[in-house]
Amino acid sequence: MRSYSQLQIAQAYLPTDKAKATSLLRDAFTASTGIPDDKDKQDTKSRLQQGILQALLPLSQSDVEERLSQVDPGVRKSLSTAIINSYAKQKQFEPAIEIVNRLTAEDEFPYGSGIALMSAMPPEMSGEKQELFAQATSSYSHHSKHGGMRFGGGFTDVVVRFGASMPPKLALEAIDEVLKQAKEANETFSLTLNSDAGTASFDSSYEYALFSMLPLLKQLDEGRAKSLLDENQSLQAKFQQFPQGMQTLNPELANNPPKEGDSAKSADSSKSGDSPKHRGMGVTMHSGKTSPEQAAEAFRRAELQRNSEQIIDSSEKDPVQAIAQAATLPASLGGPLPQSPRGHVLEAIAKANVKSHPAIARQAVDELKKMAEDLPPQSQVVYLASAADLYLQLGDQESAEKIVSEGFKAAAKMLEQDNDADDPNNALKAWWPSTDAYRRFIEIETKISHRSTANILKEIKDSEIRTVESIMVARTLLGMPMGQYTIARNTKNGKNGYMINMSGP
After folding, report:
1. Mapping DSSP to helix (H, G, I), strand (E, B) and coil, where does residue 502 land?
2. 420: pLDDT strictly greater than 70
3. Where are the domains of the chain?
4. What is the biggest distance separating any 2 CA atoms in the chain, rounded to whole angstroms?
């Protein structure tokens, strides 16, 4: 808890006193080394050290490098790849390549940071880029049994993104390795991808690998590509919808510079308000064999996510119609996660209109509040706190205060559950659902009244949580709300346990 608190205070100092922030982050790391290495605490220790060193990296890379030997291999590899990304942004390619070589010698090629490095390299470094591609292929070959479960930032992405710019022989070798390992793994799983372009589902590692590799293989060996597609009829409909495979689903993987005149067209379309929005990729994945019902549910959720984003986009032209469409979306997807398609859309509409069209924003917030009251506790506090903050922005302090008052009662009940003697929450207290609930409503109450916030802090029974929430008051006063937060429940019998990491507020 000391380590966590020092991390939060350090982040609050970042805009005004980087030296103080650096000193606090060093202290936070020192405190973290005192966390026991037993099984129950190791994950907490690793997560804290990851966050501390990630915050320290832009302030003092040398401090991070000095401490890498004290962290577990997973954190060390993650921070090493972050250092590669930092070097790539600064166009310092030699030290970045050195770290890639070291990581590859110790374990496996860092595919995600390798992509960032190769993308940053100028055209005159095509030779070095080719060497990295060959190194990645060799490393992937020597670390067999990858299957297809590793999605995003893996070797498959390296091939999709850079294969067309490599010598044909080298690109074909990479394609062969991806397909060979996927076929040998014979891995069954459910993978559903959704983006602006649509939704695609896959039932095996090999099906996904083929979908990813066939467009490039078609450029290099059209006959073989056609033969493989004929053997796998299930992919034909997918390629009719997504002609370039993964590059259609995720245009960022194309890695192609705009053609002459494209920039001007983009600028013109942006001025006219017609430029398309790219929201990235939504991913749902389940290992093992899935039933048709499970696959259908994954597809339904992916389509719900895509439809939600389309309603949000349409709200710019017709927010009233978008609010009506939001009512057709489910209020909750079930489970401990605060997932509410309807809440997400109503919240987005309200935020977009709170200054320009307050009456519309008010309508969306009213619907959001009404919907949130029937959600499970963890989801309820997320959307009620958002509604309270939006009421405050609309100048309706009375409605905001009513929600906050109820919110603190809900947080107190959640704290009783976290402290349940028969089934206590053994996760870090700073990550308890009740701690998160208090944080959300304390941030809003701080904007309303400093005095009442101080009184509320005194009523929190747990002294460690009270300390954490006091730091949140200070961060709110400084305009430094939480950017990332973790919610965790770790019960003694393993049931009802979860850990989620989310972006603020």
Report:
1. strand
2. yes
3. 164-251+281-292, 350-481+498-505
4. 75
